[in-house]
Known about the structure:
Elements: H1 19-27, H2 39-43, H3 46-62, H4 66-84, H5 91-108, E1 114-121, E2 132-139, E3 149-155, H6 166-173, E4 178-182, H7 199-212, E5 217-227, H8 230-240, E6 247-251, H9 258-265, H10 271-282, E7 296-302, H11 311-314, E8 324-328, H12 339-351
Parallel strand pairs: 3-4, 3-5, 5-6, 6-7, 7-8
Antiparallel strand pairs: 1-2, 2-4
Helix pairs in contact: 3-4, 4-5
Amino acid sequence: MNYSIGDRINKAAPHHESIEALWETKWKKPSNLRPPYDFDAYAAPFFPAASALEQRAQTAEQANDLPLASSLYLRAAALYRIARFPIPRSPKQKEAWTLNKAAYVKGAALLPGKFSDVEIPHTHRIEGEGATIPVYVRLPAHASASNPVPCIIQIFGLDGYRTELTHASNNHLARGWGTIGVEIPGTADCPALRNDATAPDRLWSSLLDWMDARQELDKTRRVAWGLSTGGYYAMRIAHTHKERLTGAVDHLEYPFDLAECLAEKFGYENVEQLKKDGKGRFSLVENGILDKPCARLLLANGMNDEIFPIEDSMLPLQHGGVKEARFIRNAMHMGEPAVGPIILKWIEDLFGA
């Protein structure tokens, strides 16, 4: 296959050529960090600055300056997020993930709207899966049984977790929508089995059952929006749970080794195992998912994506029901910043806003 990104498909990015190149091209200028694959050493410098921000946030909260307190807690959470990036592998990074959640919940609780840290019963789980699905929920203040709101199921990706809900939920809140932030199998606190291709189907069944019981959520207006690697799961849920969704969005230069992170996320010990087994196990084409009827599905990405080639978004157009697509010329991974407003407008039209 001739890929749209042309010869670059076979050309390694400069920072992938060696540890030295990574250091010289990405890390040397912005930090004093030594070669970055000692993840405890990488994470440690962020802790003092994050802790200082938390202390300032506590002072602001005690003084009843809630907007300042929220901003400072969220800034602290952002630093802990960078410390655990791309995935929490080392002890210090796992500690950063715990502190990331604690700081985020404090900050998000002070934002406009109604914020909840919820453990949803994973009622469709099988042996080996966790009992609950941790999610963050942010709703407009007016959401109620008498005034139910549309809802976005924000499905995060390989390295983005539910503690990064603020920017997206701000956009949704401004339109009167709620947001549920949820992680994908093999990442963060997701209880689903990472190496079971059907695990997300059980995950979404449990989540949607819980949503059905929430009277403040409009059952007739809900969209699953998958970010980056989460786009794979948005594409899948559009086919496996089409009757329970209004629609879905597949919203498909990385400083760490992406292949190793993906291998771990999907439950493999190394990249070679992922290459050998992953396609047959997880391919939506080979397992027939894409040939099933689907909910309204928008495929959106940048034409020059070097992580997930644009062909990953073109292939579904050749299978199953009719789908919609918007590809951004000369844009990289996820097509930002141009694609965000396009997706929001598509959802607005879908909800009849």
